[in-house]
Write a structure and sequence with these properties.
alpha/beta; Aspartate Aminotransferase, domain 2; four-stranded mixed β-sheet; 16 strands; binds pyridoxal-5'-phosphate
Length: 413
């Protein structure tokens, strides 16, 4: 580590409080200081490269510093960095809203509400659903149905809906009113009295990320759409992780031809370059907020930020290229087959370029060893997550598999 790197690490340990981090351990560690990035690689203070095997916590899509996204941000920065979305609009945000809603050519989700991150994208959907009921003659509908072990973000409301107990402990108890179910069967078994009070059902489609990359059964989403329609419950899809090509299609809901009442997008929306989120919704929901006393009182200082929207527009341009999504399935399959061959890796799970497998033992220790092999990812308990940028090359995939095999051999046998 360089002198400068050492200093940054020390300064950090004295001054910073990191997310989801045991600071006692952190203060005893030697922090890796990331100074620059290119493509699928992150570089430290000594210019040592590391493969970004979890897309910088599931955000990056086309590799770091993609020239088209960088150019879009630079151009926008010279033109307009930010102006309030309260009482005004800006060209980038309105264009992006049009582009996002146009993914549903039947006009099913014609409205886009911007916020800043995945948690707020979900908060918007919860609040819209609940408030809509209050002002559209269904005041009894005050509950959200959520799945066990779901993860929908960390703000107070979003974390109270999530079902990962270690994230909710201590404050999640005061939050939204939630009915939790484990499966489709359990949902279908809910009594009429309970369902009567339910405003919306929320799910991470195809795969629960934070719940150790657990796949839902095929057909689940379609069945949920049918159930929610029949029972008068809004369907909220949390595509914060699965959106923007990660599953091999633009959105996970397209795998089962499902269109929700709310679609929540964040992480990959800007290609991983800027914080930005969007909640898309239907005409019916939108119309229910018109008129006196029906306003949706929600928003943040940076709502509709032009820099974020410019990055998102460039991201969508890149996603429109055919080879982007083709690569997801090709490289995804290559990685899956490779992981299955490595002794000690259990229950390899995959959708698109989202992969997870279990190891016997400590995920943290495994990932620390992986770091020495110049691969960065973050475990969830004993699950190792592999979620590289969509542009990962075959050569990089082989490098990744080689590093994993080496660490497995040294640590798991
Ligand atoms: C990351 C994530 C969130 C929260 O997004 P933040 O941007 O971290 O607030 C919500 N839902 C899912 C499925 C996620 O993966």
């Amino acid at each position: 580590m360089s002198k400068e790197g050492e200093r940054w690490g020390e300064v950090d340990q004295r001054s910073v409080w990191h997310p989801f981090t045991d600071q006692e351990q952190w203060e005893d560690s030697q922090p890796l200081v990331i100074c620059r990035a290119k493509g699928c690689w992150l570089y430290d203070d000594e210019n040592q490269g590391y493969l970004d095997a979890n897309s910088s916590i599931w955000t990056n899509i086309h590799g770091h510093n993609h020239p088209a996204i960088v150019e879009a941000i630079q151009k926008q920065a010279q033109t307009l960095c930010h102006s309030s979305f309260l009482g005004f609009t800006n060209d980038r945000a309105s264009e992006l809203a049009l582009r996002l809603t146009s993914f549903f050519p039947g006009g099913e989700l014609p409205r886009c509400f911007f916020s800043d991150n995945g948690s707020t994208a979900l908060e918007v959907a919860f609040k819209m659903s609940l408030q809509w009921r209050q002002q559209n003659n269904q005041p009894e509908k005050t509950r959200i149905i959520a799945f066990e072990n779901a993860y929908h973000g960390d703000t107070l409301g979003a974390s109270s809906v999530g079902g990962v107990s270690r994230f909710v402990k201590g404050y999640g108890e005061v939050g939204l009113m939630v009915t939790r179910v484990r499966s489709l069967e359990q949902l279908e078994g809910l009594s009429d009295e309970v369902v009567r009070e339910c405003s919306a059902l929320v799910i991470e489609p195809l795969i629960q990320g934070v719940n150790q990359m657990s796949l839902w059964p095929v057909g689940m989403l379609k069945a949920l759409r049918k159930w929610t329609k029949q029972r008068g419950v809004h369907l909220i899809l949390d595509e914060v992780m699965t959106g923007f090509g990660r599953t091999g299609k633009m959105f996970a809901c397209q795998h089962e031809e499902v269109i929700p009442d709310f679609l929540c997008l964040a992480k990959g929306l800007t290609g991983g370059a800027m914080p930005l989120a969007a909640t898309l919704t239907s005409r019916e929901i939108y119309e229910g907020f018109k008129g006196e006393g029906k306003t949706f009182y929600y928003g943040h200082s940076y709502t509709g930020n032009p820099l974020g929207c410019a990055a998102a527009l460039a991201n969508l341009e890149l996603l429109a290229k055919q080879e982007t999504l083709e690569n997801v399935e090709q490289i995804g399959e290559l990685l899956e087959l490779g992981l299955q061959k490595i002794p000690g890796f259990k229950i390899v799970r995959r959708v698109g370029l989202i992969l997870g497998f279990d190891i016997e033992g400590d995920g943290q220790a495994f990932c620390a060893a992986l770091k020495k092999e110049r691969v960065l990812t973050r475990p969830i308990l004993n699950t190792i997550v592999i979620m590289p940028p969509l542009c990962l090359s075959e050569e990089e995939a082989q490098f990744l598999l080689g590093a994993l095999a080496k660490v497995a051999k040294a640590n798991l046998s």
